[in-house]
């Protein structure tokens, strides 16, 4: 099953099993499940768009000149 099709509860169970408790969720009572990203935008399972401004990853778009 693709990760974006897995129910959020199953994803949270996997996260609890595989990721250290020191890596905390920002919203533990109802975390956002990001299923795809493009450029600086991330999308949740309902298609809502978020701008990625906390990943500490530089987003660079290279265009041909």
From TrEMBL:
Belongs to the class-III pyridoxal-phosphate-dependent aminotransferase family. Signal peptide: none annotated. InterPro entries: PyrdxlP-dep_Trfase, PyrdxlP-dep_Trfase_small. Its cofactor is pyridoxal 5'-phosphate. This is PHYKPL isoform 2. One of its GO terms (cellular component) is mitochondrion. It comes from the Eukaryota. It comes from Pongo abelii (Sumatran orangutan). The lineage of its organism: Eukaryota, Metazoa, Chordata, Craniata, Vertebrata.
């Amino acid at each position: 099953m693709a990760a974006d099709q897995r129910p959020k509860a199953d994803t949270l169970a996997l996260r609890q099993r595989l990721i250290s408790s020191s890596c905390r969720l920002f919203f533990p009572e109802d975390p956002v499940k990001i299923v795809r990203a493009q450029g600086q935008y991330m999308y949740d399972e309902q298609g809502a768009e978020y701008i990625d401004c906390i990943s500490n990853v530089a987003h660079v778009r290279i265009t041909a000149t």
